[in-house]
Amino acid sequence: MILFSQFSILLSRACRTKWFLFTSPFPLLICFSLTVGCYQDSPLPDRQTAVDLLITLLDDRDTFVRRNAAEALGKIGDLKSKPFLLAKLDDSESAVREAAVRSLGWLSDLDSETRFKLTMLLQDADPSVQRAAAQALSRF
To answer: N or C, which end of the chain is more exposed by having fewer CB within 10 Å?
Structure first.
């Protein structure tokens, strides 16, 4: 308690000058201590909650959001996302189609329907989608 009162007296004296903010380390220490004092670990997200959120983001109007959601679902590798990724193979944006193809390739199980759809994408208008489909099919 004594240390705190001495600190507050020193701080009040030092704040009377203009140059205190530029020459003293006290403002930096105060900001640091306030920041560290507010630090708190965030809880780990539930995997199922994350997958459900990403599945809803597959229908976002922004192309980059849909693409990133498709990539994230593939990296998570949850088979629940497979029908939603298959639906994104018909997306109007080639970046979303490519991400969906890559994600389907990362999933562990490719049935005959998925292989057929990926084979059809070998004739896609966008070469990046064609390459992604060829890579996905070569994994299995």
So the answer is: N
Q: How far is CA 13 from CA 3, 16, 30, 44, in A?
A: 15, 6, 16, 45
For residue range 24-66, list pLDDT tens digits in order.
555 655 655 555 555 556 666 688 888 999 999 999 999 999 9
Range of the domain at 54: 47-138
Neighbouring C-alpha atoms within 13 Å toward the C-beta of 41: 3
Residue 94 and residue 86 in contact, taking contact as beta carbons nearer than 8 Å? no
Residue of 130, 136, 67, 138 lying closest to 106 (CA atoms): 136
pTM above 0.90, yes or no: no
Residue 42 lies in a domain: no
Alpha carbon dihedral 26, 31, 32, 33, in 10-degree steps, equals: 90
Give a yes or no: residue 24 inside a domain.
no
The answer to whether position 109 is within a domain reads: yes
CB 59 within 8 A of CB 71: no
State the Cα–Cα distance between residues 72 and 55, nearest whole angstrom: 10
